[in-house]
Design brief:
It is a single chain. The longest helix has 29 residues, at 372-400. The protein has three domains: 1-102, Arc Repressor Mutant, subunit A, CATH 1.10.10; 117-123 and 375-484, Aspartate Aminotransferase, domain 1, CATH 3.90.1150.10; 129-370, Type I PLP-dependent aspartate aminotransferase-like (Major domain) (Aspartate Aminotransferase, domain 2, 3-Layer(aba) Sandwich). It is built from 15 helices and 17 strands. The protein has a seven-stranded mixed β-sheet with strand order 4-12-11-10-9-5-6, with helices on both faces. A four-stranded antiparallel β-sheet has the order 13-14-17-16, covered by helices on one side. A two-stranded antiparallel ribbon has the order 1-2. It has helices at 15-29, 41-48, 52-65, 134-146, 162-176, 188-200, 215-223, 240-249, 271-283, 339-353, 358-369, 372-400, 427-433, 448-451, 470-484, and strands at residues 68-71, 75-78, 120-121, 183-186, 206-210, 227-231, 233-234, 237-238, 252-257, 287-291, 316-321, 333-336, 406-407, 415-419, 436-437, 439-440, 460-464. The chain is an alpha/beta fold. The chain binds pyridoxal-5'-phosphate. Pyridoxal-5'-phosphate is lined by residues 125, 188-190, 214, 258, 263, 291, 293, 321, 323, 328, 333. Pyridoxal-5'-phosphate binds at residues 125, 188-190, 214, 258, 263, 291, 293, 321, 323, 328, 333.
Length: 489
């Protein structure tokens, strides 16, 4: 064997590991072919100026890994059965060209928002995390560690830790008139949506939602094989007549709704429409996914009870999240549904990730038990109500100054849906350059045909009011206003 070119320049790595790596690479590249006999440990020790133990450790490691075989008297040879031809040619170009990856489907690369990048952030569902009671939550977390039952840290409890389920059930009964038959804790509502899609959607099944909707939900349905049907909507939410017409035409399996605050238009679906939709869905064997993502933040009156609170046929799959009440990084959401549905979803969850983070679940349960959750909720509802009124006042004053804005003040939520009565086609990117984040109408359509409506017809902007102070909101709105109506006033 020719001496190998070895430089021991990695000071963090033991020399025998570096030597083993060089020999391994030489075998992979074909410099040491199958059957080659290696020089003796003594000769190698001399050639590389290494201790014999170092050489032996490297050789024994390669034997254990299967690259070398050792013979009692004749030393070490490269394993004969290695299916290696030289993977590079004489001038060092790899011979094995990479082949295209055979993904089941090509998803878009995710774009994540760098929040710090914007001085003015009107993202629709952004809670204000500067007001979260971190110290209080830290105490709850410490309590968990002080009294930890370590058996909980094993696998098991797929559907969530009992302590958290108990707290959520109590809260749902008290605050939402919901008595869940069964509950599954998920990694946020997004996992809930994906589990539901996995459990219900076969290739080509039809899933309906309003024309303007929550993109991550529709992407999850589509990724699981669904064909998406748009249902018309108006100022009061989903149009029941259009749902009826589409049900006559398509065997729709699931209907996705955000009844309390329609996403993105924020409209509250009236009790009459809820009942009509429920009856239609029951008659056509459609399951309703009720995504109640910001239930607590309702300011004009008590929020309407969820559709799931009056679901005699067990056709509503109710989901909600702690992402708005706490923060999205907690990754806690949950599903309430009929026991047979929860059983299936739990089976899918086990396949996907076994369970949620137990320590976080226990800490949230503890925080809820101590009353911290409800106190925080009260404070935040009060704060967001002030911001809701402030945004209303701001938009109202712009109207009075003659700017052609239209909006319907929602009953609650964390955002307003504002018609600027002029194209907002390029507004998002133009505003980003000025440090303002907002979302425009175009991104809430699913179908390309609708998405590519004439840009002049896209006039709405979703403006979140919860995540920043009134002063910052006012400054941000002033920038948007002066950009939109450059030539007016
Ligand atoms: C309609 C809707 N559903 C659900 C969520 C929450 O998602 P998650 O619980 O996965 O954080 C959001 C957050 O923006 C939302 O807008």
């Amino acid at each position: 064997m020719h001496p190998l070119d070895i430089q021991f320049n990695d000071t963090d790595k033991a020399k025998y590991l570096q030597l083993a790596q060089v020999i391994r690479n030489a075998i992979i590249k074909g410099d040491l072919v199958a059957g080659t006999k290696l020089s003796s440990a003594r000769v190698m020790a001399q050639a590389y100026q290494l201790n014999r133990h170092t050489i032996m450790n490297a050789l024994q490691l390669l034997v254990a890994e299967g690259w070398l075989v050792s013979f009692q008297r004749s030393g070490y040879c490269v394993t004969e059965s290695l299916p290696i031809q030289s993977s590079v040619d004489a001038i060092g170009t790899p011979k094995l060209a990479p082949k295209p990856y055979q993904f089941s489907q090509q998803l878009e690369t995710p774009q994540t928002m760098e929040l710090n990048q914007y001085r003015f952030n009107f993202a629709g569902g952004l809670p204000d995390l500067t007001h979260f009671p971190y110290k209080e939550f830290k105490r709850a977390m410490s309590q968990v560690f002080n009294y930890l039952d370590v058996t909980k840290l094993h696998y098991g409890d797929i559907s969530g830790v009992a302590e958290l389920k108990l707290q959520i059930e109590g809260y749902l009964q008290k605050a939402r008139n919901l008595k869940p038959a069964d509950l599954l804790i998920c990694n946020g509502s997004q996992e809930a949506l994906f589990l539901i899609a996995k459990a219900f959607i076969g290739k080509g099944d039809f899933v309906a939602s309003e024309t303007l909707g929550y993109p991550p939900a529709r992407k999850a349905f589509a990724a699981c094989g669904a064909k998406l049907i748009d249902i018309k909507q108006d100022d009061e939410g989903l149009c029941v007549d259009d749902l009826k017409a589409q049900l006559e035409y398509y065997p729709i399996k699931l209907l996705y709704l955000t009844p309390l605050h329609q996403y993105p238009t924020t409209v509250t679906l009236s009790p009459t429409r809820r009942l009509q939709i429920y009856q239609l869905c029951y008659a056509h064997n459609v399951m309703i996914i009720e995504d109640d993502y910001d239930h607590e933040f309702h300011y004009r009156c008590q929020p309407l009870q969820p559709m799931a609170a009056d679901d005699p046929a067990g056709i509503v799959i109710y989901l909600s999240t702690f992402s708005k009440i706490m923060f999205s990084a907690a990754r806690i959401g949950y599903i309430c549904a009929a026991p047979q549905v929860i059983a299936q979803l739990t089976a899918w969850k086990q396949l996907m990730n076994h369970k949620n983070d137990v320590l976080m679940q226990l800490a949230v349960a503890q925080w809820m038990k101590e009353g911290g959750f409800e106190r925080h909720l009260k404070r935040m509802t009060k704060l967001y109500k002030q911001r809701y009124e402030a945004m209303d006042a701001c938009l109202n004053s712009l109207q009075r100054q003659g700017y052609p804005l239209d909006y319907i003040k929602p009953d609650g939520g964390m955002a307003m849906w504002v018609n600027f009565n002029t194209s907002v086609d390029l507004l998002k990117s133009q505003m980003q350059e000025q440090g303002v984040y907002l979302q425009t109408e175009e991104e809430f359509y699913y179908h390309d045909a609708v998405r590519s409506l004439r840009p002049a017809m896209l006039k709405h902007v979703r403006l979140g009011f919860a995540g920043q102070s009134v002063e910052v909101m006012e400054q941000g709105l002033a920038i948007v206003r002066s950009h939109m109506y450059k030539n007016s006033q």
